[in-house]
Design goal:
By secondary structure, the chain is an alpha/beta fold. Helices cover 36% and strands 23% of the residues. The protein is globular and about 85 Å long.
């Protein structure tokens, strides 16, 4: 995820910015840059110098050798590419046309294409492919057109610009005409102001500040801070001054990197509401608040043409990404009424698969580097297939070789076990399934709008699941020593049971398996005994009685039973009462259409796997024998 640093004070900004950015390296990035404002002590002769490079901070440091800008005010950035590949030009900071305003940005500007046309019509020539560049030009646009130049025009231009932005953003802004100040803005993307003596700082995470100060303002959404050397003014987004109490951080550097969470995995599980929103909202056009007139758009694809031509979808991937593909299979069948073949990439590459020029070929990979998935992609391309990749890694090999890339917006995952990458892959697949359903005429306006409305509720409902983490932790403390854990489900629930079993085995080293619930009696039930925990997903109420009879079979063999199901519908508790007779623990999800339930049920199981792993004394971030990116066969 991108990292922001900013400084105003009496020391050389370049060295402070580089040191702060180094402390943000753990967040993951692919390029880095700084902008430093140099001026005489009386602020005359101000000038902004920008240096930025693709690659690690060491590449930026090499570029700065004998060429570092001098100055006591500056902003810096480590970029994790979202719009446009990693390159020098796409790296931050970005400036307006004249180079007099420089901006660094974390987050995603959802309406950047619209803003780009607005600015292009006014003669702006863009240099990068980023969404961020629009912000620099927009601030300049309002600054140039300001009719009240005496009342803090930089702040006003920034306020006007952000009033036009949709999406998430943390910003650092400096301007040649205002060499005494640095503006910081936060909406849905973290930003901290560090308070020093005759110097002040900004950073997207506490570790970047701890060497300089432990007194901070954690900016809240829609707050703006204007930093001077000797004080910081705080404003709301109407430009009214507000008062904030500073906080003292007493975390050590290691826990600060994890934002106070014990592990990256737990932090990333908690980032899912935001990651899901960031993946969903930029794909919705036509006003995101009323589902009725919202339309899904995939600007990277000619979906109408693909939909007219596609007779079948083929999905291949590995591990967790493959499980996303299994959910995708059910979703495409359900919403778009298209036949789907899903296969594990390591199998697919050695099969003798049938290709048809009308196949829609989808590759899923969080890292974009998995060797087997890449081989499946190449095989498909050799046979003339057009390949769509769903990935989280801009500039990865898979993103370069696929014909079209749909990026998820999870931000980098540090923990080896995939959590937010998985749920954002699902979000992308659901959007594609709904849009294909509409284009193929099998999903009428009502069901289409219902589908979108269902997805729009997911981020807040994901946050509600996280509120139950103590209950999950308590249950894990009772069950973590079980010899076997089996996960049962049907259809969408079966796909989640596959992912749950993988998550539990990879980080807790517990023997866990998933079964299509109906298959239990065809063999696996022989394994069930009192050392077994059976986790049953029963979110599809039309299948409830079938699945509960499967649970009864395991109970009579002495297994412990956990059921994950929908919360009661209004006053009717029939299903809940029935579940209570066959479970020693029940976890409910906010009511959600059956196809979308994996987005919520899986969060319970990520937490369960995490707490079992911790209870067993493992390091969930670095499970034994596993790597984050599997680039070998
Ligand atoms: C499990 C996990 C792996 C990956 C698999 C494919 O938590 O992360 O199963 O899903 O190695 O990796 P990507 O998605 O990078 O292709």
């Amino acid at each position: 995820m991108c990292g922001i640093a900013g400084y105003t004070g009496y020391q050389e900004a370049t060295s402070i910015l580089l040191a702060a950015l180094k402390k943000l390296e753990y967040r993951g990035y692919d390029s880095a840059g700084i902008a430093v404002l140099s001026a005489a002590p009386d602020f005359s002769g101000a000038n902004i110098e920008v240096r930025k490079t693709k690659g690690p901070l060491s590449a930026l440091e090499a570029a700065l050798e004998n060429n570092a800008p001098a100055g006591k005010l500056g902003i810096g950035h480590t970029r994790w590419a979202t719009h446009g590949e990693p390159s020098d030009i796409n790296s931050h900071p970005h400036t307006d046309v004249s180079g007099s305003i420089a901006v660094v940005h974390n987050g995603i500007i959802e309406n950047y294409a619209h803003l780009k046309s607005f600015l292009r019509e006014r003669g702006v020539v863009f240099r990068s492919e980023t969404d961020t560049e629009v912000i620099a030009h927009l601030i300049d646009h309002y600054y140039q057109n300001d009719k009240h130049p005496r009342s803090d025009p930089l702040l006003r231009a920034t306020l006007q610009a952000i009033s036009k932005l949709e999406g998430s953003y943390a910003l650092g802004v400096i301007a040649r005409d205002f060499p005494d100040r640095l503006i910081a803005v936060r909406k849905d993307s973290p930003l901290i102001v560090g308070l020093g003596k005759n110097e002040n700082f900004i950073a997207s995470d506490a570790p970047a500040l701890l060497a300089y100060t432990r007194d901070v303002y954690f900016l809240r959404d829609n707050e703006i801070a204007v930093l001077y050397n000797d004080h910081v003014d705080m404003y709301n987004n109407s430009g009214e001054k507000i008062l904030r109490e500073s906080q003292h951080i007493d975390w050590d550097v290691e826990s600060a990197e994890k934002a106070g969470f014990a592990h990256f995995m737990l932090k990333e599980i908690h980032e899912q509401p935001k990651a899901l929103r960031d993946t969903l909202n930029p794909r919705l056009g036509g006003g995101i608040n009323t589902a009725a007139n919202v339309q899904i758009h995939f600007d990277e694809l000619d979906l109408p043409a693909l939909s007219a031509q596609a007779k079948r979808i083929v999905i291949t991937a590995c591990g967790t990404a493959y499980h996303a593909g299994v959910v995708g299979k059910y979703a495409f069948e359900h919403f778009a009424r298209l036949p789907v073949e899903t296969d594990i990439a390591s199998e697919y590459r050695y099969r003798d698969p049938l290709f048809d020029k009308n196949d829609l070929f989808i590759i899923i990979s969080q890292s974009g580097e998995t060797a087997d998935t890449l081989a499946a992609l190449r095989l498909a391309k050799e046979h003339g297939a057009k390949v769509i990749a769903i990935t989280n890694a801009v500039g990865s090999t898979i993103s370069r070789e696929a014909d079209t890339v749909l990026y998820t917006r999870a931000g980098p995952e540090i923990a080896v076990a995939s959590t937010k990458a998985f749920t954002t892959q699902l979000m992308c697949l659901y959007l594609l399934a709904l849009e294909l359903g509409r284009l193929r005429g099998v999903l009428g306006p009502e069901r289409y709008a219902e589908g979108i409305a269902g997805l729009q509720k997911i981020p807040e409902n994901a946050a509600k699941i996280l509120e139950h983490k103590e209950a999950v932790q308590r249950y894990a403390a009772r069950q973590f020593n079980k010899k076997k854990v089996f996960f049962l489900g049907r259809l969408f629930d079966y796909a989640v049971s596959m992912e749950s079993a993988l998550k539990l085995k990879e980080i807790s080293y517990t023997h866990s398996e998933s079964f299509a619930a109906g298959e239990l009696k065809h063999g696996p039930i022989a394994l069930v005994d009192k050392d077994t925990l059976v986790v049953t997903f029963a979110t599809q109420e039309t299948l409830f009685s079938k699945i509960t009879s499967n649970v009864r079979e395991v109970l009579s063999r002495g297994a412990a039973s956990l059921i994950v199901m929908q919360e009661p519908d209004g006053g009717s508790t029939t299903f809940l009462e029935a579940a209570k007779t066959i479970a020693d623990e029940i976890w409910t999800i906010p009511r959600t259409a059956a196809p979308f339930t994996p987005l919520l049920t899986v969060i319970y199981m990520q937490l369960f796997a995490y707490y079992c792993s911790v209870s067993r004394g493992n390091d969930p971030d670095k499970p034994r024998n596993l790597a984050k990116s599997v680039t070998v066969e």
